[in-house]
Write a structure and sequence with these properties.
- By secondary structure, the protein is α/β, with parallel strands linked by helices.
- It folds into two domains: 2-220, P-loop containing nucleotide triphosphate hydrolases (Rossmann fold); 231-306, no CATH class.
- Helix content is 42%, strand content 10%.
- It has 14 helices and six strands.
- It has helices at residues 2-6, 25-38, 50-60, 68-72, 85-95, 97-108, 129-139, 165-175, 209-214, 231-240, 247-254, 261-264, 281-298, 300-306; strands spanning 14-18, 43-47, 65-67, 154-158, 186-191, 215-220.
- A six-stranded parallel beta sheet has the order 3-2-4-5-1-6.
- β2, α3 (50-60) and β3 (65-67) form a beta-alpha-beta unit.
- The protein starts with a helix and ends in a 7-residue tail after the last helix.
- InterPro entries: P-loop_NTPase.
- This is DNA helicase.
- It holds the Pfam family AAA_19.
- It comes from Aldrovandia affinis.
């Protein structure tokens, strides 16, 4: 990812950090933030909700974490999913008119002799640590309120599975107001499509071919670290990341922890070995859905070679 950030002139500067709950995404983001700070690279980190941002902030140290909407500078009056992208960007530009114009003036200004350095012949605050420092000095003398992502080298978006492709289109369109074609920060998406789903209708990000084609680096986290006291369960969860149902996974989930209704509603109850399928009822529904989906895409003949079809006994 660092090599990707340092590559100038690339139009594809998007990376993906994937992994289910417990695989260490938040820890990895914290390590990246520490590494970036060590080499003088600035970053903006966001979560999908205030609670998610607060949890992630426990790992990022001195790198602040905000919600996605706050990082992008979205206002309450702009949160209308029915707006076309062009109309949304026009509203965004009007809201941040002073910041857009000031950043354009900063970026277009010629480098002075004292500022010049071998890497840049023009100011590129989003992909150069030296230019980033110049931009920070510039902001101290200007009263415009910039969206937090402006001028940083790395943008990290945690929980991207909650976004629709329309949200990504809006995000990139708004970023273009501050950067010319081919320029911009490295964007790292982190999350898992098997966790929370988007609440609005439409195509999910991971299902969109355009989004997939823009990714230049994909790093999967496959080992469930949260269940280190129960390695068998962790292995079964790893299989489920690929919608693979095995005899071993079925045996693990069949040995479930009995949870009473009172314990379900008790936030302090958390056994060392936590089974996500209570008494196998949810496992059966999940298995049926996976079998139907794969059979529809690949055909019933391919299903027998890939999956172990199980029934509740």
């Amino acid at each position: 990812m660092i090599n990707l950030h340092m590559t100038r002139g690339r139009w594809r500067k998007m990376a993906l950090l994937s992994g289910d709950a417990g695989c260490g995404k938040s820890y990895a983001i914290g390590m990246l933030c520490e590494l970036f700070r060590g080499i003088g690279v600035s970053g903006a980190v966001s979560g999908m909700t205030n609670r998610a941002a607060a949890t992630l902030a426990d790992f990022t140290g001195d790198t602040p974490v905000t919600t996605f909407h706050r990082m992008m500078g979205y206002k309450a009056t702009m949160l209308d999913d029915s707006l076309p992208v062009a109309q949304f960007v026009a509203l965004y530009r009007h809201e941040h008119k002073a910041a857009v114009e000031d950043y354009e003036a900063f970026a277009s200004a010629a480098m002075t002799q004292t500022e010049a350095h071998p890497r840049c012949n023009r100011r590129r605050a989003e992909s150069c640590a030296v230019c980033s420092r110049l931009f920070d000095q510039h902001k101290q003398h200007y009263q415009a309120v910039y969206p937090p992502f402006v001028g940083v080298n790395i943008v990290i978006i945690d929980g991207y599975g909650l976004l629709r492709i329309s949200a990504i289109e809006r995000m990139l369109a708004c970023m273009r107001l501050f950067y010319p074609t081919g320029c911009g920060p490295l964007i790292i998406f982190a999350g898992s499509v098997s966790q929370l789903r988007p609440v609005t209708p439409g195509v999910s990000v991971w299902q969109n071919s355009t989004f997939q084609s823009m990714l230049d680096s994909v790093t999967p986290l496959l080992v469930n670290r949260r269940q280190f006291l129960d390695p068998g369960y962790a292995e079964a969860v790893a299989y489920l990341q690929y919608n693979t149902i095995t005899c071993e996974a079925r045996a693990v989930f069949a040995n479930c922890v009995t949870v009473t209704p009172e314990q379900v509603n008790d936030p302090t109850y958390e056994p060392d070995s936590l089974r996500i399928y209570h008494q196998d009822t949810q496992r059966e529904a999940y298995a049926a859905a996976v079998v139907a989906h794969v059979a529809d895409i690949r055909g019933a003949s391919a299903l027998a070679n890939t999956y172990v079809i199980v029934s509740h006994t």
